[in-house]
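Dear colleague,

Following up on yesterday's call, I've attached the two folding results inline so they're easy to grep. Please treat them as preliminary; we haven't cross-checked anything against experimental data yet. The first protein's sequence and structure tokens come first.
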Amino acid sequence: MSETAAIPVSKRDLRTIDIVGLVLVGLCLVALVAKPEFIAGVFDAMLNKAFPIIVKVFLTGKVGVAIIISVLIGRILERLGFTDALMRIFLPVTRMIGVNTAVLVPSVYNILGDINAAGRIAGPILVKAGATRDEQKMAICTMVQSQQSFSTFMFCLVALTAINARVFVVVLLSVFAPLVVVPLLMRFTLWRDAKAVPLEEMPRFTPETGFLPTIFGAAREGAELLFLLIIPAVGVIFALIGALEYVGVWKPMESGLTSMLSALSIHPDTGIVSILASPTLATAQLKDIAATLPPNLVIGSVMLAASGFPLSVIFGQIPAIWSDATELNHREAMGAAVIGAVMRVLTAGAVATLLTPLLV
């Protein structure tokens, strides 16, 4: 008998992902032989789609600077006791709903500043307040119901004034009502692991860091948020859109989106801009043409713009920021954001279709 015993070799099973990889290798080889310009074209389309957004909007445009300043303002407010004050103000409402008061904090920071800064600042507050995973999802879903920049809010006011709408009532429905309605609805449907926490059992959220370290630390944190999380997330989303456009898939999807918005009494042109590009840009366009449009289209567009769109935020920035700042993973954060976005689209359509006679 041989001194070296034969070692049986186990056969590795072929998994689904292995099959996918083999198919991709085969397709790439076929493309290189039959149509090499296709691979180059897809890459070029992805580059051309992502480049103007990353460079002109975030690196050299005002949006990137606005994100850094929003984090700076948020941290200063937090240092001045803003978060602890919010806890006291919202405690009666959240006690009635039966959720942790910290659930509403991201929405308030979003209304006052920026949706990216809201996640960066309010995410750790939720964890510190002992919010459950369900309550963290609830916070994202609620946050997506409010506009993601103050400039969007101001443009909405101009558009509503142009059609002589009851501005206060529209703002109440679009901005403040979701703070109560969404957590209440989610509390008894999707995310039931929630409970009200007495103020006495919550920690204090005002840091004791000096003011100068707070200011410079916040500026650095804003830069990290922009360059390490937001820009990569935006790059991925717009690169994928570029690839879909090149292969001819995106255009039918865009046409279907236009039809859906029209059916929901939302102005399709500005609605698409809100969903795909920027609610601020959409409302800037809307305010110039609002007087020429039917009131229901204006109100529907305002309701849609006062949200966490565009899609790059829903599918890119929120999962990236919240998975880093809370206990949620990318999939959980994205799922909550998608649910909130769908709710917002349906709410905008319902308000525009059913309530416009009462609002104008």
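Below is the second protein, in the same order (sequence, then structure):
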Amino acid sequence: MTANTVARKEKGVRFSISAPTNFLEEQGLTFEQIRDEMQFLFDVFGNRFTRFFPLHVKRRHINRMMYVAGILRGIRECAGFDRFISRFSKSNFDDHLFSARCAYYFAAAGYDIELEPKMQDANGDPDLKISKQNEIVYVECKRIRVEKYYELDRKLELVEQLYSRVNTCDQINVELFSDYGYGLLTELLQEDRFVSEIYELGLQYTEYGHSEDDAFELRLLRRPPIIGGEEDFLDVTVTGVKVSVETGARRPDLTLMRGGRSVSVTGPPVNYRSEWNQKRRRSKRQAVAGAPFMVAFCGDDVLGDPENHRRYFEDEWLVADNREFSGIALVSFATLSNQVEAQYYLHPQPNTPIPDGFFVP
């Protein structure tokens, strides 16, 4: 059953909300709550509201709108809020939302926050001014756009080829160790001999792995026979991140589920050196001379091996030649549990140190 309600705003602006009643019950929401949050977002963004949100709200819009409203409510009383909101655009919305999430996190922890602080004499351009007991740290919040690392078109082409060429009920998992792995596996899948070998060995073992020139590993995991036709099962493509239990390395993944079968391609490993170099150069221009200055990255966006990132931060970024920086932080927000994980890499900069105990991981 789907229920509808309409909320009106003065000056002729009309909102409509449409969502299944069971969805609202599962989320613990009422139409009145959704209406109030829409009203709040309209009050915040004014005539720019429709650049970011629909006026006719459906189920797929509700969680995001409630999430954004909750964050902005949490920093509404922070100094510089209106100045901060004025910088939102359609292209940078999620970047500024990360800044807002960081501000909300620190404000909830008892810090005083100023958003987009006004700097004298054009001295830097940080996102946040964080104060605690007369001590101040300036923070620049940054995200890394990771879409290009997923290479969805290449992965989808490869999983389709695996699905059609390796005709088995078993689950197929491919780990790419390098960019070379795409081309090599594609070539091998054209050879009947290679496909037959994989298929036959898969019949002999509950779990079978095949590696080739350190370019990829293909693993088959035994699954029971599939009863029914392909049309009897869901056809779903899922993208996400696989995290290594041993190292914490985060790798882009694409999984195809079709006809009761599952085929996934993960990797290749991501090298962030060029990304870190670019962010470091830009952050230098935003640093505040003579004051503690930290760059906070959205850890949810960061792919690759944490150990490689740590070495880069400590050996190449937080060094004497980069005296502008007092520290780096990777801040991740687990939205389901509302828990925050923060890793801090602090630079022992004698001229502009971050006060001892200012940030507590």
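For the second protein, one point worth flagging: The chain has a mean pLDDT of 87.

Best wishes,
A.L.
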